[in-house]
Structure formats: C-alpha cells, structure tokens
Amino acid sequence: MGRLHIRQVISQDPKTQIIHHYLTSLRSNLPPGTIAQLSKAHWDIGKVFDEFKDNLCETKAWVSSPTAKIQQARLLCLTHNLMTLIDDQIQNEAA
Length: 95
Description:
single chain; alpha+beta; 2 strands; 2 domains
C-alpha cells in the first residue's frame, strides 16, 4: 500500500475574512480557493443527504441503475420541496 500524502491548505473567505484550514490528500497543486469551494460543496451535499435521512427516513437507494438513482434523487427533492411548501402554508395560515 502506498504512502498517503497530506497537505495543509489555508484559505481566507473573501466575504467574511475568516481563515480556514483544510487537510487534503489531493496530490495536485489546486489553489486554496478551489480546495475551499470543493470542501463547501461536499459539506452542502452532505447536509442534503442528512435532511433526506432525518425528514424522509431515506437511508439507502431502493434502486441500482444510475438512471433509476437519478430518478429517486429527483423524487426525494420533489418530496422535500413539497413538504417545505406545505409546512410554510400551514405556518402562514396559523399566523
């Protein structure tokens, strides 16, 4: 098994000026901003999956083909959005 190369990347958020430290095993010399964007995208995607698990009780795919998985993901997104709209409507009617 080969050696794992870890490097530290430091990036400053241009909006908040907050400095972020990342550890990455990517061997290429990607700019720190790219590493920060990839990390944020990864985090955002993870939050979506957590939302599906928590609110829709979805813990695994019910299908195996790539096309069917795309359709399942679309159905879950649609279900989540409809649930959000209905919840907002109920909240507004109660106010």
